[in-house]
Amino acid sequence: MPSDPPNCVSLETHDFSAIYLCSSPRSDEDYVFPSRDYGFELILGDGVLSAYYRNAIVEWDLTTRKPTRLLGAARTTIGAFTRTPSHTVAATTDDRIAVHDQNGCLTGYLASAPNSTHRTRSDYLCALPEGRVAGLDNYGRVCVWDTASLRLIDQVRLPLSNWPSSLAWDAANRRLVLSQNRGQQVVFLDPDSLSTYTIRGDLPTVLEPWAPMPDGTLAACGDGSGKEGVWLLRDNQQPNRITETYYKRLRVASSGQLLAIRDSHFAIIDRQNIWESTAEAFGQEWVNFAFAPDGDTAYLLRYTDPILEVSLKTGEAREFAVPGE
Q: What residues contact residue 197 under an 8 Å CB cut-off, 6+ apart?
């Protein structure tokens, strides 16, 4: 088992050439994750982009496309991470949830029970207001923590047949949104009292979890079994399909616009206005993407190749700098 990394790291001190690891079925061992440099998550905001790269969470400047700082590397894995204004919270290779401060220093770990000796793992993490973070733990419970004190604030086990497959923050309605059963059920939770929740069912099957928009509407792509297209879901209303064109993946910009992608084809959706085009970069292999507030730019996260900035006007793609090079 490799030794633990130092508690404080930086772009200059982190060894990006070291073997990168993933958790094994036994929590006290690691194995090398093959053919992968980047992770699954991509977070865009405030002029920066954050993503996993070789055992670390890295921040890039959107203007220069260069890495600006390292946000944490305490055995960080390719899975879930999220950011609050003061902390970065990330899953680790030894099945824990590590908290780092703004200097990239480990401050501790989050647990789903006070003084528990059992490790808490999470595949889904979501930043909340007031420096809190929500996560789905390895027992199927939704938990809320305070990142500064590492304190567990609240938790609940929902009466669901399957564990949720996502965790998102709906800022307009100040609530957590969970999808399950391929989006056919959505759960809305009050983060201040997790026992206060509502469950909505009989929804279209979707390809990715429902994504909150700035006005509180949820958006998703139908799965193609007669439900293809882009769907919107509002409180107390039936789902509304705004286009029947088949798209596989969708992201929401902070401006409220939607970007839907199918292979090299994409659509920018602004309320009822839909603009369709193509970009060669979208037809290549990639993992995740983000949509900039300007409505003109997308960012593609790939397995081993550098992150791409894609102009939706011209289709031109430019690579981000690789940390450590």
A: 156, 158, 187, 188, 189, 190
Here the tokens at position 278 are: 């193509």
d(CA 55, CA 267): 34
Q: How far apart are CA 136 and CA 165, in angstroms?
A: 9
3-state DSSP call for residue 280?
A: helix
Q: Minimal CA–CA distance to 57: which of 35, 33, 40, 34?
A: 40
> Residue 301 burial (CB < 10 Å; 0-12/13-18/19+)?
buried
Q: Look at residue 213 in the predicted model and tell me its pLDDT.
A: 97
Q: For residue 50, what are its two tokens?
A: 């954050």
Q: What is the model's pLDDT at position 115?
A: 66
Tens-place pLDDT, residues 8-50: 889 999 988 877 665 544 445 555 555 678 999 999 988 999 9
What's the Cα-to-Cα distance from 187 to each of 82, 115, 126, 168, 250, rounded to whole Å? 20, 29, 15, 11, 20
Q: Angle at CA 153, nearest 5°, toward 149 and 159?
A: 150
Q: Report pTM.
A: 0.92
Is residue 121 over pLDDT 90? no
CA-to-CA separations, 272 to 151, 215, 241, 276, in angstroms, rounded: 44, 15, 11, 13
> What pLDDT score does 269 carry?
96
3-state secondary structure 60-90: EECCCCCEEEEEECCCEEEEEEEECCCCEEE
Q: pLDDT digit string (tens) for 221-278?
A: 999 888 999 999 998 899 999 999 999 999 999 999 999 999 999 999 998 799 999 9
- How far is residue 325's CA from residue 313's CA, in Å, rounded to a whole number? 30
Residue 283's SS3 state is helix
CA–chain centroid gap for 118, Å, is 25
Rounded to whole angstroms, the Cα distance separating 104 from 304 reads 24
